[in-house]
Amino acid sequence: MEQYPTNKLNKVRKSDRAAYDKDTVHAILDDALVAHVGFVDHDWPMVIPMIYARDGDTLYLHGAKAARIAKALGKGVPVCITVTHLDGLVLARSAFHSSVNYRSVVVHGMAHQVCDADEKTKALTLITDHIAPGRWDETRVMNDKELNSTGVIAVPIERAAAKCRTGGPADDDEDYALPIWAGVIPVRQVLGTPEDDGRLVAGVDIPQSIEQAKARHS
Amino acid sequence: MEQYPTNKLNKVRKSDRAAYDKDTVHAILDDALVAHVGFVDHDWPMVIPMIYARDGDTLYLHGAKAARIAKALGKGVPVCITVTHLDGLVLARSAFHSSVNYRSVVVHGMAHQVCDADEKTKALTLITDHIAPGRWDETRVMNDKELNSTGVIAVPIERAAAKCRTGGPADDDEDYALPIWAGVIPVRQVLGTPEDDGRLVAGVDIPQSIEQAKARHS
Lengths: 218, 218
Description:
Oligomer: homodimer
Shape of chain A: globular
Strand content of chain A: 35-45%
């Protein structure tokens, strides 16, 4: 399996929970809707939620060109992109051994602005389709004014680490005799019933993209 | 309404989506299960998912004392703690006006290690109860060894900004004539059916804390 490189910045301490192979990293990235993007702004760490998409070993972000984050990231700065799925609450007999089940990925790379119109359009297509697969082709074609006012940022994945916890609690041997409930409460992100905006042209049905999105998060 | 201070680091550009009052900020913080914690490590931004709790104007984090993040944050460094609820996918008739509905909070503060045993215990109680209200009192009492091996980090909220988007898409006037579905797909985080670990003492029922947790995320 092809691996992402590690160094002291992304090596996970508990190695049994870590993975660096591309299959694991990509699956976690592709399955989430929101990433938390970290960068340094005037010596302070800044973490902003953003939608995104992956194309091979590159992550794409977007935002209004006027937005601070597009300006900051467009300069070619180090960023950290973290994606987390919370999968369960792990209740042990002791608070100490209580935990959560999760799948997360931490990506590091240098951000740069995408200027090429074709790459920008490809990135925006991927971001739109990441939210609802196939949505780009259902929408009205993007015009030049819209394309020009949108900032697209590319982050080639330089290092990446996945970290996962699965399974039930692991209590101390003597605690199993205690009359305390222990186990896992599963957590899921689900999509509800689509609510149209009340201004649909007659005869317009719920599109394929929503069915696809619902199938991914059900 | 009492407000958190703003400066150029946390002032939101689109002011109609921003709030700085404590009621709004606290409600968003209290309603989430995982925060994304940003700090600077060897000049790189680092973003790590963590569970947490709030006590007034202070956020508490915890981790094994041996963990890099506990060591890094314990030194008294600037951190950014971001919490995001994804509430909906907003599908407009154009990709450009497509968006997501969300509630997020970005907090800045200087982290410091909590050494006082009473404050540590209070913080761990709050973190445990944040995951499942009342869970601390249901679990076996924490012993000194456990308390000593757990690092607790306090982050007094120095600045905070909430940002929210609600409602449907806002398309360009001429696009409403297009035969394209537009609206919102609600997104929710839900808790599933508790799964015990198969080692319960006879007669142990699902505790109150799980019912409380489920009521908060249903």
